[in-house]
Design a protein that fits this description.
Elements lengths: L1 H28 L4 H9 L18 E2 L1 H4 L1 E8 L1 H22 L4 E7 L7 E6 L2 H11 L6 E7 L2 E6 L1 H24 L7 E5 L3 E7 L4 H8 L5 E5 L6 H4 L8 E8 L5 E10 L3 H8 L7 E8 L8 E8 L4 E2 L3 E7 L9 E6 L1 H13 L5 E5 L2 E4 L11 E5 L6 H17 L6 E9 L1 H30 L1 H23 L3 E2 L1 H30 L4 H33 L2 H32 L10
Parallel strand pairs: 1-21
Antiparallel strand pairs: 2-8, 2-20, 3-4, 4-6, 5-6, 7-8, 9-14, 9-17, 10-11, 11-13, 12-13, 15-16, 16-19, 17-18
Helix pairs in contact: 1-13, 1-16, 4-6, 6-11, 12-13, 12-14, 13-14, 13-16, 14-15, 14-16, 15-16
C-alpha cells in the first residue's frame, strides 16, 4: 500500500509542477504595470519580452467586464443575402440563355418584389420556353416556380436554399469579422452567434469603439462592371429634378473610336431622391450606380450616375492580397494595390483584352470608386483603388489602411447594422475585479473555517484539495489561452463549493463508519466506496447543465459554463483522488479513530 500511495503522490506533485509551468505566463501577465499592459494590448507580440525563454506564451486573458473594452451586437441583413443570391442567379440565367441560343426578351432580378428573392424571365417564343423546360429546368434547382403567364415565368429562391443562404451568411459574417479583428491585434476577442441573425462581438482591452465600428461595419463588396457607353436613355428621360444636371462628354480612344459619357450630376444629400426618381427608367440589362465626382480646389464633391452593364464581370472573391501604396510625387494620394488569384488574374486579363478602349467601373460597397478606361490588356493580375476627395493625406492614408484590411479579410456576405453597442471603461473593470477578489477571499475563508471546525483533519485535507482544484482549473485555462470574466469567476467559486460538498459527503461517510466501530483505515475505504456514487451523480448532473449553457448561452454564460465544466473534471480528481492520498498517508499506521 505504501508504494501505491507514493506513486499516486508523485503523480499529483508532477501535475502540480506542470500546472505551475503553464500558469507562469498568467502570473506574469497579471503582474504587469498599467504601462506594460497597455503596450501588450496594443501589440500581443510584445508579451514575449516579459516572459522567460522557457515559459509558454498562452495565458489567461481577463474578459471584457474585468479589463474594459467594446461590446457590440450586430444584425445581419439576411434578406439582402437572399436578394444577392437571386441577382446572381438572374445573371447566370441570362448567360445560359445566350450560350444555348434561347431567344428571350428579358431576364430580371425583381429586387423590389417581396424580399428581393424573385427572378423573372420573358421568353421570345414558345420554343425558347420549351427548351428551358427540357434542358435547363434541372440546372436551376435553387429556384422554385411561382407563376407562369404565357411566355413569362417567375421564380423565387427555393426555400431550402433560402435557409442555407441565411445560415451561411451568418457563419461567413463571423468568419470575416474574426479575420478583420485578428489584424487589429485585440487580445482574446469573442465573436459568437446570437440568435438566428445576430453576431455578438466583444473586444477586451480595445479602447476605440469608433475605429472598431468603422472596420467591422464595412461590407467591402468589391465588383468590377463594364460601363455602358452607348445607352442614351438619360437624355430621353422626362421630369429631370431641378437639383440634377444632365452632363454629356466623351473622349477619343486609342483605337480611334469614340466613347461617350452621359450622366446626371447632383448633390450628395440628394442620393436617396435620385434612387427613387430613376427607378423604372433603366433599360433591361443595365444598372445605375453612383459615386463621387471630386472637384478641384477643395469644393464639396458632387455625385454622379454611372450606367453599367448588369453582369458583374469580376468580384473581390478572387483577391489574394491588398496593400497600401503611398503614392508618388506626381500623384501623392495613397492607394490600395490589389492582386488577383490565378483564376481572377485570368478573368481580369480576358476582361481587359476584350474591352480595350472601354471603361471599367470599380465598385466598392455598391459605390463606384472610379471608372478608368482600359488602354491595353492588363494580364499581370493587379489593379489599384485610389483614395481621393477633399481630405487630408492622413485621412486618406487611414482609409487606405482600413480598406486593405477589409479586402484581405474578405467581404461581408450581407450588410450589418449595429443593434447594441457599449463601452466598458478600464476603471469599471478594475473595480469589478477588486470586488470579485474580496468576495472570493471572504467566501473561501468562511468555507475553510467551517471545514476546520466541523471536520478537523478531514477539513484540512478538503481545504488543500480545494486549493489544488482552483489551481488546476486556472492552469487549464492558461494552457488554452482562455478568458476569465465575472461569470467565469462565479463558475470558479461554484466549483469550490462543489468540491467542498464532495468532501463533506466523504467525511460524513467516514464518520458513520467510525461510529459503527471500524478502524480508521477500514472507515476510509468504506467511506470513499460509499460516497463515490453520490459524488459522481451530482457532478454528472452539473456537467449536463454546463453543456446546455455552453451550447445555447452567449458569451458570459459560455464563460461560466467553460469554467464550470473544467472545474467538474478537476473536482472529481482532487476531491476523490487527492484527498484519498492524504487519508492513506495519515492512516499508513492503522489508527483506531480519526479527528473527523
Amino acid at each position: 500500500m505504501q508504494t501505491s500511495v507514493l506513486i499516486r503522490l508523485a503523480l499529483v506533485l508532477g501535475l502540480t509542477a506542470l500546472g505551475g509551468y503553464v500558469l507562469t505566463p498568467t502570473i506574469i501577465y497579471f503582474s504587469l504595470t498599467d504601462e506594460e499592459l497597455a503596450e501588450v494590448q496594443k501589440d500581443t507580440a510584445k508579451f514575449k519580452d516579459h516572459l522567460p525563454t522557457w515559459a509558454p506564451e498562452s495565458h489567461i486573458v481577463p474578459g471584457l467586464d474585468l479589463q474594459g473594452g467594446v461590446h457590440m451586437v450586430l444584425g445581419v441583413d439576411l434578406d439582402k443575402a437572399v436578394s444577392d443570391r437571386a441577382r446572381r442567379i438572374s445573371n447566370r440565367m441570362r448567360g445560359e440563355f445566350e450560350e444555348k441560343k434561347i431567344a428571350f426578351t428579358s431576364v430580371d432580378h425583381l429586387e423590389d418584389v417581396g424580399k428581393g428573392d424573385r427572378v423573372r424571365a420573358v421568353f421570345a417564343d414558345a420554343k425558347g420556353l420549351e427548351t428551358f423546360d427540357k434542358d435547363l429546368v434541372d440546372v436551376y434547382a435553387d429556384l422554385a416556380e411561382v407563376s407562369r403567364d404565357g411566355l413569362t415565368v417567375t421564380w423565387r429562391v427555393h426555400p431550402n436554399w433560402v435557409a442555407k443562404v441565411r445560415t451561411d451568411a451568418v457563419d461567413q459574417t463571423i468568419k470575416t469579422i474574426t479575420n478583420r479583428i485578428d489584424k487589429m491585434h485585440v487580445t482574446e476577442p469573442s465573436i459568437t452567434k446570437r440568435g438566428d441573425s445576430q453576431v455578438q462581438v466583444q473586444l477586451p482591452g480595445f479602447a476605440n469603439p469608433e475605429e472598431a465600428k468603422a472596420l467591422i461595419g464595412r461590407t467591402a463588396q468589391l465588383e468590377f462592371q463594364m460601363c455602358d457607353d452607348e445607352s442614351d436613355f438619360l437624355v430621353k428621360a422626362e421630369g429631370l429634378p431641378e437639383w440634377a444636371k444632365l452632363q454629356q462628354s466623351g473622349f477619343q480612344r486609342k483605337d480611334g473610336g469614340y466613347t461617350q459619357d452621359i450622366f446626371l450630376e447632383f448633390p450628395e444629400e440628394k442620393l436617396p431622391e435620385m434612387r427613387t426618381w430613376i427607378t423604372g427608367k433603366v433599360p433591361t440589362g443595365l444598372v445605375i450606380k453612383y459615386g463621387p465626382e471630386f472637384v478641384r480646389g477643395g469644393d464639396a464633391p458632387k455625385w454622379r450616375t454611372y450606367t453599367l452593364k448588369a453582369d458583374v464581370a469580376l468580384t473581390g472573391d478572387d483577391l489574394v492580397n491588398a496593400q497600401v501604396s503611398m503614392g508618388s510625387p506626381e500623384q501623392p494620394q495613397p492607394s490600395v494595390s490589389i492582386e488577383f488569384s490565378p483564376t481572377g488574374k485570368q478573368l481580369f486579363g480576358e476582361l481587359t483584352t476584350k474591352n480595350v478602349g472601354k471603361r471599367m467601373a470599380i465598385v466598392l460597397e455598391d459605390r463606384v470608386d472610379s471608372a478608368p478606361s482600359i488602354n491595353e490588356p492588363i494580364t499581370g493580375g493587379n489593379a489599384s483603388i485610389s483614395m481621393g476627395g477633399s481630405r487630408t493625406r492622413e485621412e486618406m492614408l487611414k482609409d487606405a489602411n482600413q480598406l486593405s484590411i477589409v479586402l484581405k479579410s474578405g467581404a461581408l456576405p450581407a450588410p450589418i447594422t449595429f443593434r447594441e453597442e457599449r463601452s466598458v471603461g478600464p476603471s469599471l473593470g478594475k473595480d469589478a475585479l477588486a470586488a470579485s477578489k474580496k468576495a472570493s477571499m471572504f467566501g473561501v475563508a468562511l468555507v475553510a473555517l467551517f471545514m476546520l471546525l466541523v471536520y478537523r483533519v478531514g477539513g484540512l485535507f478538503a481545504i488543500i484539495a480545494s486549493a489544488l482544484n482552483v489551481f488546476f482549473v486556472l492552469a487549464v485555462l492558461s494552457l488554452f489561452g482562455g478568458s476569465l470574466s465575472l461569470p467565469g469567476i462565479a463558475g470558479l467559486l461554484l466549483t469550490v463549493g462543489m468540491a467542498v460538498d464532495a468532501n463533506i459527503i466523504i467525511n460524513e461517510r467516514i464518520r458513520e463508519e467510525l461510529l459503527s466501530g471500524k478502524t480508521a483505515r477500514s472507515a476510509v475505504d468504506a467511506g470513499y466506496n460509499a460516497a463515490f456514487t453520490a459524488i459522481l451523480d451530482s457532478n454528472v448532473a452539473s456537467a449536463l447543465a454546463g453543456f446546455v449553457c455552453l451550447e445555447f448561452g452567449s458569451g458570459p454564460v459560455q464563460n461560466f459554463a467553460i469554467t464550470l465544466l473544467i472545474g467538474i473534471g478537476s473536482t472529481m480528481f482532487t476531491a476523490v483522488f487527492v484527498t484519498r492520498i492524504f487519508f492513506d498517508l495519515y492512516t499508513l499506521k492503522d489508527r483506531d479513530t480519526l479527528m473527523i
